[in-house]
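Support request from a user on the community tier.

User writes: "When I paste my structure tokens into the form, the page sometimes reloads and wipes my input. The last time it worked, I copied everything first. Here is what I submitted, just in case something in the input itself triggers the reload:"
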């Protein structure tokens, strides 16, 4: 009886080589062909040399080793030759499992060594059994190769899936820790090991730090110093279906995945860290910074610019620059963008007042150059210098006042000596002239000349008196008084002259609290000098003749401010810095001494106040006098001014 040809491989080849595990089917067909009751497909375990079943009893086995030690060596000797019918006396364990003393031993070593098919006591004669063994040897070898390739395809598919899962988790979360945790669990499942861990090398601390593990209760980090990305640690027995080559392949594939993924994430983290550092630096600047493209559309700005504009960043991106800043600054930035050509290092700076941003700014425009050295926009940096400009103006004013005070002080010392020396002879001349004018008839022909001499001498005496007032030598009588009344007395002394010249005086609303401590006669003289200068300026100009006087109280500064504005032509720019200088006058010789405003300046300074002259934007001159406010608690009468 010849065994029937096997149909299992025929079905496999008919399916194009695609089939599940064929070994159980071949096992069953072999039993039917040779009329045996039991058979087993055994495989040598490389690491131990033991033999364990691949197929037994028409099923795939996963039990432990059948043959160990001396029995494994004896069985290997039986399987070293060609297929043979052999006695199982030296392998009692196998004889007991198969229930037979003799077996057909078929080494399946056409593709790989270590696989043996054993059929217990075939019912056919020996020739037929050996003929079947030759065919079975080929069939099982093909089945084993197909099974190996199937496992390899499955293995590679699982590796690809592992790579995709790792890449997907890494891309979705950008968290290296979470992606490594998932990878550790997948590797553990793939290899069937007890635990898989990933250790990363921290170059700064020179330590290997546990970054992920399939076991949450993993021990503490290890210390190290090697300059490497890290290491993959697989612990526990590996599934028997993986040989050494596959384990190496798994290690290499996972190492490649980890190397690429870790380096990409570390690079991305470094880029993000540098970007956050740049953004923090950019937003920490107190200067207003805005970046625009070549079309002057906003592409970026810092927090200071966003806060100054008062709109959220999302609403500012893409906006035209001229909608966010003043027209003068926008036109200058646009002109720089067009004229400079956008060359590297191109920087333009200017100071500009911008009402829309609210202040005075030092602006800088710089070309924005990309990596190809092409102009792609402009960077506008705006620094608020409003306070600095104001302080500089105040410093200049204080410096001018200090210079004026020093000049007047030194001049006053000189003038005071001359005035005292001239005052006594002038008083003697005036006394003798009065006696001559009142003399008997003998002096009558000379009285007209004597009166002219008297008037000239009297005018000289008044000049000397004014010089003494200017130098502070006049006796002061300080008392609490209201500026409104002082101004009213000064106006009363000029009422006829004002009416004759057709000059209207407009007074602002009086404030009962505008009180100061001062000498009423000196303050009246100061305001009278200002009024006389205003009269002269108005008469010299064509147009309406008007003087506006306002008095107000600045509670914060503790001062009383009086402003006298005329409708004249204003003060020429070259004259304005010198109007308080002694003996400086723009009038013709004999028309003025140049002491009026200088005396006013001295009186105001003596009262602890300030005086300032300027031109009004609408025309005319404005003189502002500020005096310290009198505190309500102070008593009236002759008092010294505080501070």
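"...and here is what came back when it finally went through:"
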């Amino acid at each position: 009886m010849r065994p029937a040809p096997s149909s299992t491989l025929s079905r496999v080849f008919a399916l194009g080589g695609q089939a599940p595990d064929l070994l159980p089917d071949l096992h069953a067909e072999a039993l039917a062909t040779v009329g045996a009751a039991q058979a087993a497909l055994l495989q040598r375990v490389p690491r131990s040399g033991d033999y364990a079943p691949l197929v037994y009893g028409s099923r795939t086995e996963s039990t432990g080793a059948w043959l160990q030690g001396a029995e494994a060596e004896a069985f290997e000797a039986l399987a070293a030759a060609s297929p043979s019918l052999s006695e199982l006396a030296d392998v009692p364990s196998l004889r007991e499992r198969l229930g037979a003393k003799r077996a057909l031993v078929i080494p399946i070593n056409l593709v790989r060594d270590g696989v043996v098919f054993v059929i217990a006591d075939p019912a056919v004669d020996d020739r037929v059994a050996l003929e079947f063994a030759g065919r079975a040897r080929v069939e099982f070898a093909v089945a084993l190769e197909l099974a190996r390739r199937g496992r390899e395809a499955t293995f590679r598919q699982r590796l690809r899936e592992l790579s995709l899962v790792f890449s997907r988790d890494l891309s979705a979360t950008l968290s290296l820790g979470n992606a490594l945790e998932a990878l550790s669990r997948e590797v553990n499942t793939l290899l069937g090991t007890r635990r898989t861990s990933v250790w990363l090398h921290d170059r700064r601390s020179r330590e290997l730090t546990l970054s992920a593990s399939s076991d949450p209760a993993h021990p503490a980090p290890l210390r190290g110093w090697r300059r490497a990305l890290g290491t993959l640690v697989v612990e526990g027995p590996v599934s028997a279906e993986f040989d050494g080559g596959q384990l190496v392949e798994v290690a290499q594939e996972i190492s490649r995945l980890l190397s690429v993924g870790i380096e990409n994430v570390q690079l991305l983290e470094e880029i993000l860290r540098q970007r956050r550092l740049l953004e923090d630096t950019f937003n920490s600047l107190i200067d207003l910074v805005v970046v625009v493209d070549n079309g002057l559309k906003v592409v970026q700005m810092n927090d200071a610019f966003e806060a100054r504009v008062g709109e959220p960043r999302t609403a500012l991106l893409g906006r035209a620059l001229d909608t966010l800043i003043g027209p003068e600054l926008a036109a200058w930035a646009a002109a720089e963008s067009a004229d400079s050509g956008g060359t590297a290092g191109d920087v333009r700076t200017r100071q500009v007042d911008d009402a829309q941003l609210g202040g005075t700014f030092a602006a800088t425009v710089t070309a924005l150059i990309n990596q190809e050295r092409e102009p792609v926009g402009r960077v506008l940096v705006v620094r608020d210098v409003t306070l600095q400009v104001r302080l500089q103006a105040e410093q200049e004013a204080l410096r001018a006042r200090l210079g004026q005070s020093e000049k007047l002080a030194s001049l006053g010392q000189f003038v005071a000596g001359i005035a005292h020396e001239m005052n006594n002879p002038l008083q003697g001349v005036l006394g003798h002239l009065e006696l001559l004018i009142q003399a008997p008839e003998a002096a009558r022909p000379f009285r007209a000349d004597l009166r002219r001499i008297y008037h000239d001498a009297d005018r000289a005496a008044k000049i000397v008196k004014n010089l003494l007032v200017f130098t502070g030598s006049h006796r002061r009588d300080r008392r609490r008084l209201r500026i409104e009344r002082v101004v009213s007395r000064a106006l009363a002394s000029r009422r006829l002259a004002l009416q004759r010249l057709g000059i209207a005086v407009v007074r602002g609303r009086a404030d009962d609290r505008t009180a100061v401590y001062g000498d009423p006669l000196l303050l009246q003289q100061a305001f009278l000098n200002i009024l006389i200068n205003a009269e002269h300026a108005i008469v010299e100009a064509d147009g309406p003749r008007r003087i506006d006087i306002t008095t107000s109280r600045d509670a914060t500064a503790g001062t009383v401010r009086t402003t006298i504005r005329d409708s004249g032509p204003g003060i020429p720019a070259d004259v304005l810095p010198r109007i308080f200088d002694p003996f400086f006058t723009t009038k013709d010789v004999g028309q003025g001494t140049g002491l009026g405003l200088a005396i006013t300046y001295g009186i105001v300074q003596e009262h602890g106040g300030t005086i300032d002259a300027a031109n009004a934007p609408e025309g005319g001159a404005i003189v502002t006098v500020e005096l310290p406010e009198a505190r309500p608690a102070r008593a009236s009468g002759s008092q010294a001014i505080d501070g």
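Agent notes: The reload is a front-end session timeout and is unrelated to the input. Residues 353 and 360 are 4 Å apart (CA to CA). The domain at 174-280 is CATH 3.30.450.40 (Beta-Lactamase). Escalated to web team.
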